[in-house]
Design a protein that fits this description.
Strand content: under 5%
Mean pLDDT: 88
Helix content: 55-70%
Low-confidence stretches: none
Structural class: mainly alpha
Shape: globular
Order of helices and strands: HHHHHHHH
Largest sheet: none
Length: 261
Amino acid sequence: MGMEPQTLFSVWLFLLGSALGSFLNVVVYRLPRGESIHSPASHCPNCNKPLKPYDNIPILSWLMLGAKCRNCKEPISIRYPLVEFMVAVWFVWMFQLFGLSWEFANFAILGVLLLTVSIVDIDTQLIPDSVLIVGAIIGLAFAFYGDVISISDSLTGGAAMGGTFFLIALIGEKVMKKESMGFGDVKLSLMIGLFIGWKMAFLAIFLSSIFASVIGLAAIGLGKMKFGKPFAFGPFIALGALVSGIWGDRLVNAYLRWAFV
């Protein structure tokens, strides 16, 4: 007996997601270094030997190689298969939530864009404009052709979320007498608003602040971060955006039920 069509499609999405995750690993490594993302072919960053096709299979090659380069035996970070696995699972999860729909496409792609930005931000505390530009174009295209949000809602969302973070950055700089938020975070929030619209934009702002506060305080308490030291805020904006975009209506309704009991 063959697999059900939905199961078969989920398997295909997992394979597609893992392959896209493999490409994402190339992007997050090369973009901050100003290298081309399409040439040369994948190679070991330590010995520069090109990878054989059978050494470049998402997730499996890392396992088969024992997490080491075949040529120089340099350890290969677990981040490579982890990113591939995360994108693969994300694609399948979004399909399970939304089926084959515009919502699935909207949040599957947004998740990949935000994971890309988050990794680069963690590594360099910089957010690549090239990813944001591509994301903005995709977000507007989804709003124009899809049925998740209207084009006016998309544009208003970008203005609302980007404008709010811009004001926060200005006020923070005035109060603290130094840069409190990078302009990359402002541009990232603008791109996100194009995907989720203005209604969820304000919830995303609130949630990202909560996530940053809770995780930041926990990191300080565990000695992993020093108070007042700059940190990558992009991942928290990304997390707040995904939670609000996907589950925002449920969270708001649950809060209203609790508040007006």
